[in-house]
Design goal:
By secondary structure, the chain is of the alpha/beta class. It contains 22 helices and 14 strands. An 8-stranded mixed β-sheet has the order 7-8-12-11-10-9-13-14. Strands 2-1-3-4 form a 4-stranded parallel β-sheet. Helix 18 links the parallel strand 9 (446-454) and strand 10. The protein has 2 domains: 5-184 and 219-399, no CATH class; 424-577, IlvD/EDD C-terminal domain-like (Glucose Oxidase, domain 1). Its cofactor is [4Fe-4S] cluster.
Length: 607
């Protein structure tokens, strides 16, 4: 089945815009590809270093050059719940590779930080930049040229986008992404959010808050809300970089291990040494990128991907824009209600039919490109399945259920939760911004109110504690863009603004910073571009200025005469406190080089 005309038209627009960059990119990866194992070009001294620590049988296999070798890029650390399960994956992958007639080596590790730990802390100012560091760290591991394919072990917010950028930079190599899966369900996310609000109001203490948080985040695996980490997993499956049915199987289960072994076997099968060579850079094309955006809208996914998808696409020579994302949002219905867009978590989503049901519904509605390449090799229809553990311990697949297991969580395309996607682009005299509407009630999507201006989230927090945030207002938090301080997430603002909204005030947020993928409820125009430090008009907003945010019409306006706005001087705050501490001094070059949010907020010139 072909994609609908409107989806095809947007794809063609992206294809035409991207043609020069895409052709140059494909030329580069074609030049890097070869029929022989890459290590065959290494000198004897090079190769001896490359397998010095291997056992005798692996050395013999690698010496001949005819046995495929997988490079494992791992984001393992045992502090992050989502990445802790990866501790055992390399041994499992190595044994599965040997059993299948290949070799696997850990090519390198990449950093993995947790935005949940650094929320509101100085370390959060490294978070967005960590994506590009991850891409570079993966490149160092793969630069040894010992590998015929790469498998990537990563889950969370910046890790997967960084690994995708690396995989596409080494686009002549096949790439298979292997997830670890979500933790089992704990304290429901809405109950956790209530305790957070009570703590912010001083109605419960730190002990009660920590108890609630610990019951919610309680074991190995990805956090169960539908934030950036789980949006990553959705993207990898709908873009064909995961095995069918792999994304949301819990860690530590027999099915999870069987999927990891199968992913290893598939990575070996699609190298240039076999008959199903599937280089990542050719596999991921404009259609794959559009499929990812469609999935993001259909599930009400993370706003962070309005930045990450642009940077990921650019790594493959593809020019994706906010306007493309916005136009696709107009065409794609919302089919999932997972916290913060609903009360369910990702385990409930998976149990209701999960990715298989979602992909089948979107394909049947003509909202996805079916004729794409995937690591599975059979087009996207092969992903409309449920994965189960067979009696022999291998993975079995059957067709996705005809009906959702819970239509309050996962709806059919004929009865969507809303006719359009969960993200919109706003435009106006402040520039461009992004808003996530899927978790915002319709009667809260338009607000006209005076501005309350702050140059940090601490400023708003202090005003809240002082009781001065009265009446309706739009909070403007500026100097939070990538050039100013690395564009940290400002997630803790949602608790404060949520309390005020629950009290009956009409409030909204406008910022050149980011919000968490788990944010919702309060209308928030984020990623305002150009940012204040880059001459953006948001730097000219004053306390009391009337503003209008209209998420229905897609507008963000400062209601000040144009002539007056031109003459106003921009604010010039002291940002020196951003320069040092928690490693921030090491990232001064990144802050200097980084591009705009609407071009991926990356330091890489190709984007």
């Amino acid at each position: 089945m072909t994609a609908r005309k409107d989806i095809e038209a947007i794809t063609e627009r992206i294809r035409e815009r991207s043609r020069p960059g895409r052709e140059a990119y494909l030329g580069r990866i074609a030049a890097a590809a070869g029929a022989r194992a890459n290590r065959a070009v290494l000198s004897c001294g090079n190769l001896a270093h490359g397998f010095a620590a291997c056992g005798p049988s692996d050395k013999a296999a690698l010496s001949g050059g005819g046995v495929p070798n997988l490079g494992i890029i791992t984001a393992y650390n045992d502090m992050l719940s989502a990445h802790q399960p990866f501790e055992s994956f390399p041994a499992l992958i190595k044994q599965a590779a040997r059993d299948a007639g290949g070799i696997a080596q850990v090519a390198g590790g990449v950093p993995a930080m947790c935005d949940g730990i650094t929320q509101g802390q100085a370390g959060m100012e490294l978070s967005l930049f960590s994506r590009d560091v991850i891409a570079m760290a993966a490149a160092i591991g793969l630069s040894h040229n010992m590998f015929d394919a790469a498998v990537y072990l990563g889950v969370c917010d910046k890790i997967v986008p960084g690994l995708v950028i690396a995989a596409l930079t080494f686009g002549h190599l096949p790439a298979v992404f292997i997830p670890a899966g979500p933790m089992t369900s704990g304290l429901p996310n809405d109950e956790k959010a209530k305790v957070r609000q009570l703590y912010a109001e001083g109605k419960v203490g730190r002990e009660e808050l920590l108890q609630a948080e610990s019951k919610s985040y309680h074991g190995p695996g990805t956090c169960t809300f539908y934030g950036t980490a789980n949006s990553n997993q959705m993207l990898m499956e709908i873009m064909g970089l995961h095995l069918p049915g792999a994304s949301f199987v819990n860690p530590g289960t027999k099915l999870r291990d069987a999927l990891t072994r199968e992913a290893t076997e598939r990575a070996l099968a699609i190298t240039a040494l076999g008959n199903a060579y599937t280089p990542a850079g050719r596999m991921i094309d404009e259609r794959s990128i559009v499929n990812g955006v469609v999935g993001l809208h259909a599930t009400g996914g993370s706003t962070n991907h309005t930045i990450h998808l642009i940077a990921m696409a650019a790594a493959a020579g593809i020019s994706l824009t906010w306007q493309d994302i916005s136009d696709l949002s107009d065409a794609v219905p919302l089919l999932a209600r997972v916290y913060p867009n609903g009360l369910a978590d990702v385990n409930h989503f998976h149990a209701a039919g999960g990715m298989g049901f979602l992909i089948r519904e979107l394909l049947d509605a003509g909202l996805l490109h079916e004729d794409v390449q995937t690591i599975w090799g059979e087009g996207l229809r092969a992903y409309a399945i449920e994965a189960r553990l067979g009696a022999d311990g291998t993975v079995e697949r059957e067709a996705a259920p005809a009906k959702s297991g819970d239509e309050k969580v996962l709806a059919p395309a004929t009865k969507p939760f809303q006719p359009t996607g969960g993200l919109r682009v706003l435009s106006g005299n402040l520039g461009h911004a992004v808003i996530k509407t899927s978790a915002v009630k319709p009667d809260r999507r338009i607000i006209e109110a005076p501005a309350r201006v702050f140059d940090s989230q601490d400023g708003l927090n202090d005003a809240f504690k002082a009781g001065s945030l009265t009446g309706d207002f739009i909070a403007v938090i500026r100097f939070q863009g990538p050039k100013a301080n690395g564009m940290p997430e400002l997630h803790r603002l949602i608790t404060i603004l949520g309390i005020l909204q629950d009290r009956g005030q009409r409030v909204a947020l406008v910022t050149d910073g980011r919000m968490s993928g788990a944010s919702g409820k309060v209308p928030a125009a984020i990623h305002v571009t150009p940012e204040a430090l880059d001459g953006g008009p948001i730097g000219k907003v004053r306390d009391g200025d009337l503003m209008r945010l209209d998420a229905e019409a897609g507008t963000l306006e400062l209601l000040v005469p144009a002539a007056e706005l031109v003459l106003r001087a921009a604010a010039k705050p002291d940002l020196s406190a951003n320069d040092f501490g928690m490693g921030r001094e090491l990232f001064a070059g990144f802050r200097h080089m980084v591009g705009h949010a609407d071009s991926g907020a990356t330091v890489f010139a190709a984007a």
